[in-house]
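thought: fold this chain, then report.
action: predict
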Amino acid sequence: YASILRGMSTRNRWPRAATQPCLPMATKRRGFVVPASASSFASSVSEATKRDVPPPSIFNDVLGPVMRGPSSSHSAAALRIGRIVKMLLEDGLSHHPHSTAGGDTAGATLQEKNATAEGTTRPPRVKLLVEYDPNGSLVTTHDGQGSDMGLLGGLMGWEADDSRLTNFKEEAAKAGLEMEVRYLSYGAQHPNTYRMTATSDNGSRVEATAISTGGGIIEFLQVDGFPVTFRGDREELLVWMEERPECEEKKENRKRNDKHAEEEGKVSDFIERALEESNRKNIDTFATVYEMEGNTAAPSGSKKLLLQVSSSSETVIKSILEKLRCDHRDRSSASSSNGSSSSSSSNILIKKVAAIRPVLPVKDPGRQGRLVPFLNVAEMEQYAEDHDNMPLWQLGARYESARGNMSEDEVLDAMLRTASIMRGSVEEGLAGTSYSDRILPCQSSSLARAMNQGQVIPGDVLNKVILYVTAIMEVKSSMGVIVAAPTAGSCGACPGTILAVAEQLGKDEVEVARALLVAGIVGVMIAKHATFAAEMGGCMAECGAGSGMAAAAITTMAGGDTKQALGAASLALQNSFGMTCDPIANRVEAPCLGKNVMAATNSISCSNMAMAGYRHLIPLDEVLVAMKAVGEQLPHELRCTGKGGISATPTARAIEAKLKNNDNGSNGDDRGARPTPGGSKIQC
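observation:
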């Protein structure tokens, strides 16, 4: 381990600290990474910079996650954060996290440890302390928008669409999980900041800070005070170490005993060889060592260290982890036979190891995933022109193929599955939904009945769009499965529009999937240059983005060309600037439903305008830059905090108070209501 701390081979190293600024903590990097090519320091720094921020993925960032809950940036993101905290609590030296694919089986790990220790089968007792900064958004939204649900579900190893999320409190109690929430001003730099301390009665403890950046995407900023960063899209191995000062006798022994020096370096040499071999095979892998300064908890003169090995390959991490486990067993056996606490004079002690599996559907393939064909609209248009006017849907498939290291056929197949889930949400919504913690009744059935009886203004596709958007939103509000597209709060606008227009135009499922690829690549541009987070850009970032995506998609379905589709997206986004995010009682139902409908109808209008030759004037690239700026200029109170807009009206506050008193928040008319898991009723 000492050779890792002194740096990798000189011919293959560069300081990662030069490419990524540290957080304001008492820590510093002391390690090095192994690039694919170390021909020059400049090229290495450029490569590392690209590695640190992978480009958006259609399935990670835009059309996903597949989930339950009111908000992707709360429910799904918190669940992913919770899953990673669970993995951080596990001891990789005694348990192999790669033996399962996660999920329910992974959830038994802590229970098994406690059962082994005490000879019982009781559930594990894990406590999570979460601190939210009042200057952010989570103080007012964590309960109503599903952050608490997500964190506990993640600690139980669930996926974001697990059916047990509807009863998460009961399941958490059975699993022995406790959660305490505190409001504390600690200078959080992001409105969706989770500062957490997780402890288990098996002695494991971890402190971590993570953020939700919108649409279910997350990023960890620190672990146990070390500024280690990861996004849940790579294989990660964290090794906690302690470096103790050597006494003079050990130094002399190490200098004289070549055999011991060889033994001391065997694991670190193995790690170095693994890094070099993986990079020769074009597998993106790097290692970084962090050093804790001013550490008062360690013995005098000792330092706390954290080694992070990050790879695009599970095999690389498994091999390193297995080597660490074998070495740990050898040292433990030698220590037992010698009757001493340590059989080695090494001054580097491994305290804990944790392996972090990816929680995003599309893994970061490393350098290969950085070689996407374009990253802005102008580049995309030029690429299309250079490739025989490639259609927009194929541009989306080409991009995601490069980003996810998969074939274009695999991309299309994945989108067909996504379209099927979206259609299932529509069908479930039209069949009627119910849930106790909800403020709006089931209304899609009323619209369908009124349409059939000729009681609404004729609108052909427009009314069908309203119907489908409403159905999807009602499924979300009843904890059914939806696709966040691009977010859960805006899950109705884009899918509802595309599905309804496709039916009106007689399009098949393949053409629907291609339209979704168009929506996806427009969403990639929004994710790259603006945001999907309402906490950063208001509802413009959610429903506005969904409107722009849908406008481009239905334009291509109707036969429009790439310029018309991108013009429609530009118009739709321009019309959405300044939209506030102010959900009543934090339930992401109203005025969210109306804004989804408005976004959908806006997309139809803009599509028709673009195909009729209306001028959008401002290129989409420039619109996205302006969109980001407008979001930053919106007051904090109008960005999903529950402190302004409709959410701050007296009636909205009264509805919120009723919900807190276990009232279902309906208008009192209980006709047609059906029982729900919580024992209450909601009108349907």
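thought: worth noting. The longest strand covers residues 205-214.
final: tokens above.
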